Amino acid sequence: MQHVSTFSSWDAARRLSAPWQARTDVGRIRRLAAGDTLYSQGDTHDRFYLVRTGLLHTTVLRPSGQALLLEIFGPGAIFGEASAFIDTQRYVTAVAVTPAVLSEYHAADIAAMVSAEPQLAISLIQLLGIKHRILIGKLLSLTSASPQARLIGLLGRLALTAEDPALVRLTHEQLASMAALTRVTVTRALKVLAEEGLISTRSKGVEILDAKALIARVGQI
Q: 133 and 41 share a domain?
């Protein structure tokens, strides 16, 4: 049941960002095209982000050079705050999976606000705790789950995250990178899911056909 806990925790993280979602007057808007890199592993800057629309993912490079997916961020997610506030190098690379609109915040500006609006600080503390739980669950999944289970978890997360799951088109190469699998392994696992009618692989990318069924399958892994 580890996947269910992790999946539910991620949804809770979106709800906890409500104070930030309501403050459209704070920060500045950033727009990204699919494939754009927001920041790279090793960068140093004091900015963090709220996703307003679209999907992004963060990856970290293994010693072998393979990218390991750490998290997927959709509408309502806040990320990058730890490095922003403690002024350390980014340990991940953040890339837009689909076109995305973000709010960008400078840590110094937010630090000056929280005394007057403590709910913003409380929200960040709660989000950090939730993301720690999610990361542990993700690492357990990557070390123990089967390739098909990992893809179901990933696609189920995308189905829950995207405003319109049918518009999320990811290539086999992108899914392989996001799930830390080989392309051949992803192709084999996707064939089974396609035969079940959950996805289609006949278009320019993998298309989610039955978002509800994918979300339900996460609890069955």
A: yes
184 or 142, greater pLDDT: 184
Range of the domain at 48: 2-141
- 215's CB contacts (< 8 A; 6+ apart) are 156, 159, 160
At 131, which CATH number?
2.60.120.10
pLDDT, one tens digit per residue, over 182-217 is 889 999 989 999 999 988 887 677 888 888 888 888
Label the pairing between strands 37-39 and 93-96.
antiparallel
Do 56 and 121 fall into the same domain? yes
Residue 115 near residue 122 (C-beta atoms within 8 A): no
Same domain for 46 and 124: yes
Single out the residue in 92, 121, 141 at which a domain terminates.
141
Q: Is the pTM of this model over 0.90?
A: no
Contact 75, 53 (CB under 8 A): yes
Q: How far apart are CA 16 and CA 64, in angstroms?
A: 36
Residue type, 133: R
